[in-house]
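Example for tutorial group B:
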């Protein structure tokens, strides 16, 4: 594993990668990440979650940097913004007003709040919102649940937005064009003066595939989606429930 000699920046997806299925992090994983930091590695969360929805894990791991909302929001260790890329509030209002009657559910992540049309949704400190007249706030992402992808594609094309389809095809995320986890890595490197050959990225889902393939040392979880596993050069021996990330780092990087 020749590439491992140059690695400086470790990027981690959270759900089903660093986190177990019950959304916890083991003491073993915490200790390995701390050892990595002590050896000079920079720990960086790279997740589709917002920074607010990652706070529980930020307080446990104390990452050196964070890339949140799928590459749209980069912060330093203290949470100070280094890069912010959001959909303009005028477009957000038009899009949410159009999507609301056509989708089973809709939600919007702004800088400080997560709005959801589903009154029963309590995760991410969600705030119920009636999108009948749209929401007029800048947003990192707009999420809608619908099996009909065609009109969502039309919206993405009209407003020049990035469209990502996930969770068996019924959930769709709209964000600024070019907003991907890998582009988040590239923007981060540009800001700090880092190089691609100093990166190692860990993930499990379709949205992680690009950063796994293009980083110097890309690592797919044993529990990754079949497509991700099929194209991965490195795969953890253990799953996320078995501390796969920590075992890989301890064996290959520490």
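The residue assignment follows.
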């Amino acid at each position: 594993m020749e590439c491992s000699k140059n690695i400086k920046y470790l990027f981690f997806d959270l759900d089903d990668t660093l986190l177990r299925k019950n959304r916890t992090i083991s003491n073993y994983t915490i200790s390995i990440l701390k050892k990595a930091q002590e050896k000079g590695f920079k720990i960086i969360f790279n997740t589709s979650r917002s920074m607010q929805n990652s706070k529980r894990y930020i307080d446990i791991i104390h990452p050196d940097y964070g890339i949140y909302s799928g590459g749209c929001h980069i912060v330093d260790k203290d949470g100070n913004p280094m890069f912010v890329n959001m959909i303009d509030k005028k477009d957000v209002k038009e899009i949410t007003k159009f999507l609301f009657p056509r989708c089973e559910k809709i939600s919007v992540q702004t800088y400080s709040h997560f709005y959801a049309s589903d009154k029963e949704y309590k995760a991410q400190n969600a705030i119920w919102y009636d999108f009948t007249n749209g929401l007029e706030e800048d947003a990192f992402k707009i999420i809608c649940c619908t099996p009909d992808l065609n009109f969502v594609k039309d919206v993405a094309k009209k407003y020049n937005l990035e469209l990502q389809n996930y969770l068996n095809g019924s959930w769709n995320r709209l964000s600024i064009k070019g907003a991907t986890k890998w582009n988040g890595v590239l923007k981060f490197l540009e800001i700090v003066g880092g190089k691609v050959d100093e990166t190692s990225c860990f993930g499990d889902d379709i949205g992680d595939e690009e950063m796994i393939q293009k980083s110097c040392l890309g690592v797919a979880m044993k529990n990754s989606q079949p497509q991700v596993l099929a194209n991965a050069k490195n795969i953890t021996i253990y799953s996320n429930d078995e501390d796969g990330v920590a075992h890989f780092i301890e064996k290959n990087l520490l």
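The mean pLDDT is 94. Compare this with the pattern of hydrophobic and polar residues in the output above.
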